[in-house]
TrEMBL record:
Keyword field: Glycoprotein, Hydrolase, Protease, Signal
InterPro entries in UniProt: AB_hydrolase_fold, Peptidase_S28, Ser_carbopepase_S28_SKS
Protein name: Uncharacterized protein
Listed Pfam families: Peptidase_S28
Family per similarity comment: Belongs to the peptidase S28 family.
Entries under SUPFAM superfamilies matching the protein: alpha/beta-Hydrolases (SSF53474)
Superkingdom classification of source: Eukaryota
Key word Transport present: no
Keyword Lipoprotein: no
Annotated GO MF terms: dipeptidyl-peptidase activity; serine-type exopeptidase activity
One GO biological process term: proteolysis
Length: 949
């Protein structure tokens, strides 16, 4: 009981009892402050220490070393068969307070009869795997090993306490919030859902947004005064007399002479973090504002000094950066602050360095990212450099998805004044992955228990979390299937929402699924990955290099001698879901006794022929090569499985619908844009028709209104207010303006793919009571209603596309796809059509210039046009010389403007699905299908029957 009383007293004192270093409190509790225990909690039974034998290195089978990992269990509210609530402990000592009803998790455990559990993180508290903290020993301190610890612990506890069938929900705050989200992502067969509080999942090397939020939290006047104070410091540091005055103002020790740049930066860090600390935990912000904005308090620096000197008992403040570094070089195990371990993780995994590199930083420019990178080298050794840190960050983002994690069933609560929200998820990712902002709350504010005096923002956040916890448990009861395939179930449900959980980029969803969304699936079969050695370059006989191309085979319906149905995967990773009965191909495979196969496209998913995605290496990425891959794979599989004499039918959606090799007796080319076009202006024409004349005209008026406002500084100011744009948007950069227009356009297009979405757009755009057309446009494109301004910089569009690192699951698939548009297809969805509702704010030149900017000056409008002309000449455009093909299209799908819409001959049929969107025919039949979709499926079925005669 002593420890609880101690915690209570520490966290009632005004000065918080800790300092911030790199945004982390330097005590044993780390980022998340434990809940204050009420008297009833203080007399609750203290859980006894329990220990689990955890492996030191899960990924080295030859290493059998183990260590004791601490955990606590509270079963006081547990009802047999109830869920397990696991609080993931982060970079701190394990604290049993989170199992009590002083925490929201504890409250929920009581309400839902859950077993409450918390596990200490390796290398923190008492769970240290090595005898010291030398850099060599810290190699076992990684995110991956921490997540594996959680998995092994969950399996151990399930067996020990007979918890088979119980549903697990994981909770975590700050860094542990990251782990909660990533554990759900990596081990969905264990965690039904996660609550990731204040989780800075968007790992970044130079975290300029952190201090930007601090500036916003204290307000413009206060922020400007802090900036002036820092400018005063910079000026005083220029002369010996100035340094003397600075020492006097800030009560610095005589040893500070202003000559050591690291000491100066360390001073800036100490001063800045004093302010940040109060903002991060929303304590005393009003006092900061009052002090800094009171001119009677002296110069801005003198006011700034008053914030620093509160509670100071030392004769003077010693500023010695070297002493700070030396303290972190100490390899002795110490449970007090554990800053060495935490700093190591920042240097080797995610950085998140809170710098002053932003142009308008209120804290001057004395904390550049180089300051932090150099510390990593000084503390842990010369092998850690700025380059290795950046690579580590890139790897973390590539593995876990950054701000766009591929995850379902997660809640991301964030406080509105928490600086870490700058790299947190602030918008819903899909129907089951929710974000919620708690107004006027700081870091981890939602983790404390509900009280009768909670403001509406906290009540609403807790309601959402509770509802999601209920959903997670209800969700899993629906699926009693093999462990391996649960991964697929969760992944699919992430993409069944109305809004898709993605953004469009050049008309393509910017996630790993690309154009064709996988279906929602209930399936109890595990399909193993298989790989085929494919040639890198078929058209160079001297090049014998090969790469591993992934494929899946499902023979569950296959009858000897039956056909082979091949799903050609397009610009996305291959998924075994496409051979399941949730797809129309899977349905047909069952009917015709077919072998169902999926082949991954080169350069997408795991089938990458080259070590990186440099422009030089991308020369092997072409539709011609992809067709040759398909042909050679068919020959290989025919020989391997003795399929001689079996007939092949190929299926594909969108870009993959264009690829129908000559070995096939027939093809189903769903939503296939077979006509390449540099200026695909007709694309937005379809969206305009879908929305109707009145709605399109109102969008056009909004676009005109926006153009007018961009002509004057006063207009730009007004535009920023209407669209909630950041102050950095000045309307002077034509590419920034076009980027803004494009992103608003894509929001309309992506929502206009369904009748529900169209009705929503019309309802807002045609309602004059909402305001001007532009104000309505702002609402319909979701530009308003966020506490975070929209930062539209064209460079943000280009920079990720220039990244040549291979990322099989994330945004980097866009680099490959955009390359193909520059070298083969164009497909640029411009607003060049006369009377375009988007005016002429997105001309084709906006897209063609990007080819040169991303891939090099050899890409010009002329070279792109030649490439498109060659593609159409080679494949035939809208009049391909083919037989035995069905071209299904959806009437709401803008891509149908580039597809075959009329029968080409007696065996090459076109069918339009009224009210259908992109590739809607590819999903399995249901009783709710429209008559138009039923007719399309009937035609496809009949044609397949004809092909197989």
């Amino acid at each position: 009981m002593y420890s609880f009383v101690f915690i209570y007293n520490v966290y009632c004192v005004p000065d918080l009892g800790f300092k911030l270093f790199m945004g982390r409190p330097n005590d044993r509790h780390g980022f998340i402050r434990p809940p204050i225990l009420k008297p009833v909690d203080q007399f609750t039974r203290q859980p006894e220490d329990q220990w689990f034998e955890q492996r030191v290195d899960h990924f080295n089978k030859q290493d059998d070393k183990t260590f004791k990992q601490l955990y606590y269990i509270d079963d006081s509210h547990y009802k047999t068969g109830g869920p397990v609530f696991l609080m993931i402990s982060g970079e701190s000592e394990l604290d049993a307070a989170y199992l009590t009803t002083a925490s929201f998790m504890g409250q929920m455990a009581k309400k839902y009869g859950a077993l409450a559990v918390t596990l200490e993180h390796r290398y923190f508290g008492r769970s240290v795997p090595t005898p010291d903290l030398s850099t060599g020993n810290l190699k076992y301190l990684t995110i991956e090993l921490a997540l594996k610890d959680l998995e092994q612990f969950a399996l151990y506890l399930t067996k020990k306490l007979s918890l088979e069938g119980s549903k697990w929900v994981v909770f975590g705050g700050s860094y542990a919030g990251k782990l909660a989200s990533w554990f759900r992502q990596k081990y969905p067969h264990i965690a039904a859902g996660a609550v990731a509080s204040s989780a800075p999942v968007g790992s970044t090397y130079d975290c300029t947004g952190y201090l930007r939020v601090v500036g916003e939290a204290v307000g413009k006047e206060c922020s400007d005064n802090i900036r002036k104070a820092n400018l005063e410091i910079e000026n005083l540091l220029k002369t010996p007399e100035g340094v003397i005055q600075l020492r006097k103002t800030l009560n610095l020790c005589q040893s500070f002479d202003g000559k050591n740049i690291n000491d100066n930066r360390y001073l800036s860090s100490l001063l800045g973090m004093t302010v940040v600390m109060h903002v991060q935990y929303n304590t005393g912000v009003d006092k900061i504002v009052k002090t800094m904005n009171d001119p009677s308090g002296g110069t801005p620096l003198e006011r700034y000094a008053k914030l620093q000197l509160v509670g100071q008992t030392l004769d003077c403040v010693e500023v010695n950066h070297n002493k700070y570094v030396v303290s972190l070089q100490n390899t002795t195990i110490d449970r007090k602050g554990m800053m060495r371990q935490w700093t190591y993780m920042t240097c080797t995994e995610f950085a998140d360095f809170p710098t002053t590199d932003a142009p308008d930083s209120p804290f001057g420019h004395n904390l550049p990212v180089e300051y932090y990178a150099q510390q990593c080298t000084d503390i842990f050794g010369p092998q850690i450099t700025a380059q290795t840190i950046q690579r580590a960050v890139n790897q973390t983002v590539a593995t876990y998805g950054g701000l766009k994690p591929n995850v379902t069933n997660v809640v991301f609560p964030n406080g509105s004044v928490d600086p870490w929200k700058s790299i947190g998820v602030l918008n819903d990712l899909n129907n089951s992955t929710k974000a919620v902002i708690l107004e006027n709350y700081g870091h981890g504010g939602d983790m404390v228990a509900s009280t009768p005096t909670d403001p509406p923002t906290m009540i609403n956040a807790h309601k959402l979390i509770e509802q999601q916890i209920i959903n997670y448990n209800m969700f899993l009861k629906t699926y009693q299937i093999k462990r391996q395939i649960k991964v697929f179930v969760f992944v699919c449900n992430a993409y069944s929402e109305t809004n898709g959980g993605f953004k469009l980029f050049n008309g393509r969803p910017n996630d790993r699924y690309g154009f064709v969304r996988p279906p929602v699936i209930t399936w109890n079969q595990f399909i193993a990955e298989q790989f085929y050695d494919q040639k890198v370059d078929y058209f160079n006989k001297q090049d014998n290099r090969t790469f591993k191309q992934m494929y899946y085979v499902d023979d569950s319906h296959y009858k000897t001698g039956g056909p082979v149905f091949l799903m050609i995967s397009g610009e996305s990773f291959a998924s075994p879901i496409w051979v399941s009965n949730a797809t129309y191909m899977g349905e047909m495979a069952k009917k015709y006794g077919a072998l169902a196969v999926v082949l991954e496209h080169r350069y997408y998913g795991k089938s990458i022929p080259t070590p990186d995605l440099s422009t030089q290496n991308l020369k092997y990425l072409s539709s011609e090569m992809a067709l040759k891959d398909t042909e050679q794979f068919a020959l290989y599989l025919t020989k391997k499985l003795s399929l001689e004499g079996n007939k092949w039918v190929v299926f594909g959606g969108s870009y993959a619908g264009n690829l129908y090799p000559n070995i096939a007796v027939g093809a189903i080319a769903s939503s296939a844009p077979v006509r390449a076009a540099v200026d695909a202006m007709e694309f937005l024409g379809v969206t305009s028709e879908s929305l109707g004349k009145e709605c399109s005209e109102n969008i056009r008026k909004a676009s005109l209104e926006m153009n007018e406002l961009l002509k004057t500084p006063e207009g730009v100011t007004k535009l920023r207010k209407i669209l909630n744009l950041c102050d950095t948007f000045d309307g002077k950069n034509v590419n920034n303006n076009r980027f803004l227009a494009e992103q608003m356009m894509w929001t309309i297009v992506s929502n206009a793919l369904s009748k529900t979405g169209i009705d929503k757009i019309r309802g807002i755009m045609n309602d004059t009571s909402i305001g001007t057309p532009l104000e309505r446009y702002s609402k319909v494109t979701e530009m308003i209603g966020s506490s975070i301004c929209h930062d539209y910089h064209y460079s943000h569009r280009i920079a990720p596309l220039k990244n040549t690192t291979i990322d099989p699951m994330g945004f980097q698939l866009m680099r490959q796809w955009i390359y193909q548009t520059c070298t083969e297809f164009g497909y640029y969805q411009s607003s060049d059509l006369p009377n375009s509702p988007f005016e002429h704010n997105i001309p084709v030149e906006y897209y063609t210039q990007q080819c040169a900017q991303v891939y090099g000056p050899q890409f010009t409008p002329q070279s792109i046009q030649k490439a498109v002309d060659r593609t159409n000449a080679y494949y035939g455009g809208l009049k391909p010389n083919v037989t035995n093909v069905v071209f299904p299209n959806g009437s709401l799908d803008p891509w149908h403007s580039l597809s075959v819409l009329k029968d080409l001959n007696n065996s090459t049929k076109a069918v339009m699905i009224e009210g259908g969107d992109h590739c809607s025919d590819m999903w399995a039949s249901t009783s709710n299908d429209s008559e138009s979709l039923k007719n399309a499926h009937k035609l496809i079925d009949q044609q397949i029957g004809e092909y197989l005669k």
